[in-house]
Specification:
The protein is an alpha+beta fold and about 550 residues long. Helix content is about 20%, strand content about 15%. Strands 4, 8, 9, 16, 17 and 18 form a six-stranded mixed beta sheet that branches. A six-stranded mixed beta sheet has the order 6-7-13-14-22-19, with no helix packed on it. Strands 12-20-21-15 form a four-stranded mixed beta sheet, with no helix packed on it. The protein is globular, with a radius of gyration of 25 Å. One of its GO terms (cellular component) is chromosome.
Length: about 550
């Protein structure tokens, strides 16, 4: 069926409810854009999603035009029937919009979706960073500065921390359940795994068993609030739960004591390509910035990781040799667990780095060696999973092997600060897993506490905080990337696809968790990854053996 025929069928369905074509057309366009041209969700249940989106949009406009005053319509209105069992047709009320026409609005209870406090505006090109006011904190902790390159240079003036949510309503109307899009995903593994509230996942604070409950579609167009170059929507088709409160930030924030020194003077002439111009990947020979990756750039001209480099990183991660591990004489991580009698170091993987061009280089921002610093470019969506893992991240388009997805962004803490924060948290307060920046501890020598750094995305973070764990065969791999400083105790942690990823497939990452480590400051969650190589499942199997 052609697109024109599908549009005509949609208009016929809405005309029967008295909705003019001119009013439903922009709503339909927005939904097609949101679902990436997929008509399946829109057509299901006699265009229920389209009708609900229309009433939600009109309700928002009506409330603004009348400053919240509801006018009861004495005329008879066409009731909107629900598909829920045992529930009568909804009564409707009318709101007089700014244009003077009556808008039919269902009297469902409206709840405001709060994604966190607004962040402060940052000036373009500021090297000093962003200061967070105490009133904007989600907890008692107070970050004091930002670590990131020149925003204007990185995004051509398109990125910022200014919060705006155009095109999204602050109130969410209840919608009927639409799960056909995920039926194949849910039925394949749901019989093998429990979805009870016992399961602790790295993201959401609450787990709910939603069997046999009436639920509705909940979504928002852009959880980044305009902080990224692309919009990232979130959707919950299994219930009414909203995403956990946090402040979205596109770049890392220093919490307090972390030592991160970013300056042009620290970048030597051997670590930049000041004589380059345009795109370094088009040069006849690689520049100085390719030295870290063996004299060849890690990226292809299409912006993908070269397969040889990617395979080397995956091999080191999955089957590390002894030479790939560094053992501390006095491991700071073990010392935090037990300062009186710390255990021996369990080893830190010495990782392969990517070095990107930066401010002291002569090339432009479209240089092929500036992939990570240009930010997110693929179409992503946060959604509520059906396997008991809570919120997850998926791609809305096919991603080839070696594609950059996003980097892990959060507060930059010292190990001591993270330990203190974990000791202060109680119950299920922690819902993200922190990342230790230990990829090059072996070459850094003896590090002070303010140089032993980690990233925590619990209160401040980006979309990567929603990436769920999967043991061994995850479709993402994390790779350290050097951008604005040659000091390897601080770097960017970037996620690339380890294989081709199909549209609507969940994006997963191996957290490298030791499920047997009882002394880790962050208690390991019960793994629901479903992988045949699940380390937590193997541990449970061994315990079950007589």
């Amino acid at each position: 069926m052609s697109s024109k025929q599908k549009i005509s069928k949609a208009f016929n369905a809405t005309r029967s409810l008295g909705i003019p074509d001119g009013q439903i057309k922009p709503i339909l366009k927005d939904l097609l854009k949101m679902y990436d041209g997929n008509w399946k969700l829109i057509e299901e249940d006699n265009y229920r999603t389209l009708v609900d989106a229309y009433f939600e949009h009109n309700e928002s406009e009506g409330l603004e035009g009348n400053k919240g005053r509801l006018v009861e319509d004495k005329k008879s209105l066409i009731p909107l029937k629900r598909s829920r069992d045992g529930e009568q047709s909804n009564r409707a009320s009318s709101i007089t919009g700014s244009s003077g026409r009556k808008l039919i609005v269902r009297k469902d209870k409206i709840s405001e979706v709060d994604l966190g406090h607004k962040t402060t505006n940052s000036s373009q090109g500021s090297q000093q960073g962003l200061v967070i006011r105490p009133s904007e904190m989600l907890s008692s902790v107070k970050p004091v500065s930002v670590v990131f390159p020149d925003k204007k240079a990185l995004t051509n003036g398109n990125m910022g921390c200014k919060s705006h949510q155009k095109g999204s309503s602050s109130s969410q109307c209840a919608r009927s359940l639409n799960t056909a899009l995920f039926r194949d995903q849910c039925t394949s593994n749901s019989s093998k795994r429990s979805t009870s509230s016992e399961h602790v996942r790295p993201i959401s604070r609450d787990q709910h068993n939603r069997k046999n409950t009436n639920s509705s579609l909940h979504h928002m167009h852009d959880l980044t609030k305009g902080a990224e170059k692309v919009k990232i929507s979130w959707v919950n088709e299994l219930g009414n739960e909203s995403i956990p409160k946090f402040n979205y930030i596109p770049n890392n924030l220093i919490f307090q004591n972390a030592s991160v020194n970013i300056s042009l003077a620290r970048i030597s002439e051997d670590d930049c390509c000041s004589s380059c111009s345009g795109d370094c990947l088009l040069s006849s020979y690689p520049c100085a910035c390719a030295r870290e990756t063996g004299g060849e750039f890690a990226y292809t001209r299409e912006g993908l990781l070269k397969e040889e480099f990617l395979n080397q990183c995956m091999s080191m991660r999955c089957e590390p040799n002894k030479e790939h591990l560094f053992y501390c004489e006095d491991c700071p991580i073990e010392r935090l667990k037990n300062g009186y009698k710390p255990d021996r170091c369990k080893g830190h993987l010495l990782r392969k780095f990517i070095k990107e061009c930066w401010g002291k280089c002569g090339c432009d921002m479209q240089c092929g060696n500036r992939v990570v610093q240009r930010g997110i470019s693929c179409k992503l969506q946060v959604y509520f999973t059906c396997e008991g893992k809570g919120w997850g991240l998926r791609t809305l388009k096919n991603l080839p092997k070696g594609s950059f997805v996003c980097e892990y962004v959060g507060e930059v803490l010292t190990n001591t600060e993270l330990y203190d924060r974990n000791m202060q948290s109680t119950g299920n307060e922690r819902h993200t897993y922190p990342v230790t920046l230990d990829a090059d501890w072996g070459s850094e020598g003896v590090l002070e506490d303010d140089e032993l750094l980690c990233l925590d995305a619990t209160y401040y973070g980006n979309v990567a905080r929603f990436i769920n764990h999967r043991c061994s065969d995850a479709n993402l791999i994390d790779i350290p990337v050097e951008v604005e400083t040659p000091d390897r105790h601080y770097y960017h942690l970037a996620f690339f696809t380890s294989r081709e990823v199909k549209a609507l497939e969940e994006l997963t990452w191996d957290y490298a968790i030791d499920f047997d480590d009882k002394d880790h400051p962050v208690k390991a969650f019960k793994c629901c990854c479903g992988s045949a190589f699940c380390r937590d499942a193997k541990k449970k199997h061994k315990k079950a053996l007589p």
